[in-house]
User: What shape does this take?
Amino acid sequence: MPNQPILEHLWIIPLLPLLGATINGLFGARWPNKIVNTVALSATGLSFLSALEAVREFLAYYEQMHQAFRKEFFDWIFTGAAAGNFRVGFDLQMDQLTVVMVLVVTGVGFLIHIYSTGYMAHEGGYYRFFSYLNLFMFFMLILVLAANYVLLFVGWEGVGLASYLLIGFYFLKKSASDAGKKAFIVNRIGDFGFMLGMFLLFRKFNTLDFSQLFAAVEKSGLPAEGWGVFGIFTVASLLLFMGATGKSAQLPLYVWLPDAMEGPTPVSALIHAATMVTAGVYVVARSHILFQHSETALVVVAVVGCATALFAATIGLVQTDIKRVLAYSTVSQLGYMFLACGVDAFGAGIFHLMTHAFFKALLFLAAGSVIHAMGGEQDMRHMGGLSSKIKVTYWTMLIATIAIAGFPPLAGFFSKDAILFGAFTVDGESGGNGGHILYAIGLLTALLTSFYMFRLVFLTFHGKQRYDEHHVHVHESPWSMLGPLVVLAVLSVVGGWVAAPALWGGKDHFTLFLSPIFAAHEATGLSEAAAHSLELILAGVAIAAATLGLLTAFWLYLRQPGKPAQFAKSLQPVYKTLLNKYYVDELYAATVVRPLVWISDHVLWKIVDVEAIDGTVNGIAQGATAVGDRVRRTQSGNARSYATWVVVGALVVIVILFWPTLRPMIGMVTK
Amino acid sequence: MVPTQYYLILSAILFGLGVVAFVFRRNIITIFMSIELMLNAVNLSFVAFSQAMPATKGHNLDGQIFVLFVIVVAAAEAAVGLGIIILTARNRQSLNVERVDLLKL
Assistant: This one.
């Protein structure tokens, strides 16, 4: 057994941010910013370093043992035999999937912490912000390191809490506190499904531990469920996926994510782009054995993901708030990840999760830098021509845009290509053509992505400046903010290269790395050479789509700046629908929110609470008063009436005592 | 010798008269006297029981001792009670108990 100090004490990785959160939360209010950010940064920094060391140790461990590292630290819940030996331990595990997640979470998280020291420098509640941010890191690490569903759920709820706190960070602003509540409540709906899924799995397999559960599934010999069969796997998978749609902002529960942009920009980058919202993808990937046992569940995942990708991308086309464009882009890209999971290309999904974490965090941070430069302005219609004034921000954002649009050799190209390839070839086994439809929609989404991202760049950085120079003093951000941008830009460029050899017939190292988890994707009836040439063709098509998007944006927003307004006018209904986000919020308000509020108001409040509950309590009090009022009359204060009662009482006692003697006498009298 | 029951019946009648007078009369002096009547009715039954004890066991004098105590206590009570009555009568210019009801709320 190799020496593995950190791996044996895996709890160190999540514990460090928790310590940071506790220290800052308890004492930070009185400390100057410098001490607060030293605590927060060292907590996350050390956590990142220990994660790196743990990964190194795990790889050495894996060389020898060829299995996931797993350690039980203590029993959290243990019911004993009477209740079915239900055991939930504080068990952490490390496998290839965890490696990717832990490195993304701690790495990107650390960069965003650095960025925040610059971005939040002039904000109130500095210690509060870093305390929440560290708390988020703690829960997120619990989520990805957990070795059973229950502990994962602890992290799952915890990141939801941190998200709520950070969205509502500017809680004096009503829209911000409302957005926080919306996020929390919408997530609750998904979590309900998640919990039902857990209960169902426990009932069937008697364990919620990942390794035991999946081993039990494999050993049970239950057949995979075909399309339309609603057995244990389909129902459990769909319930888990319901949780994932809440957390990862998929149709129909995506509505909270765009509103979550009310939070500070680093929060949007960390929680609502790079890490927390990918938790749903992680759970689906972690439970892939369940999903693979159910065709229905996989199809649902793929269709929901694909539909969300297109749906959110179309909304993103017309948004004018820079952060909202990115929010819809995030929803759309998350849809891509679910599409990958749904077509049984889990490796590609996780790959896109990683590259997306890099370039989307970068996009958000760069957008934050733009907002910082513009003194708080978020509307792209009031920007323009910033490229020469904030050069570093411009170049890093451009790199991220190229990456997300899917141009080689940047990261997004490789991951998106892997997903589209997976979608295109999924029909190999079944012979249907659903995969080609998914592929076509995915490709269309890629085109739209390229278009709205370049639209964002052109509107923000190119063209005429549309702000008043006397009011806005454009200035480049400090290096505490630019540093993380540069690092993330480098990652956005090189992040996909591990998969690059696949293009020239080599190995996709990322998928290879994850292959112990997701049994290597079966060849799809194509010979290796045919698959390879197909991949090249698909890559070419994807590049063409991205280029088309770029050119359209270039033509519409730089060459013919009047055109977009004309289009908007001639396509008024379409434009209005998109601008109002398909009226989904209004639809939910009319069908769910308002009826609920009405029932709460007219039934629960005015009838159940006021009439039934208050009525019972007040009724008891009134009854007591009424009885007291009657009985009070006996206390006349008149000595003779008291004497009468004494006599009556004495007679009663006598009758009771001498009843056996008296009864025959009464009998005699009545006779 | 007069049978014990006769004493007891007389005692009960006297006690009953006392109770009825106590409850129905309004004059405070009459009430006071009815209390004395009840006490003495009880005294009578004490003495009767004492006397009824069979001579073979020696006459048990406990009942008669009790009667002496009752008379002493009644005398003391009369002293205090009459004092209270006099004060009440002075304050209210009346001996009607109906009007002595300050204990009521």
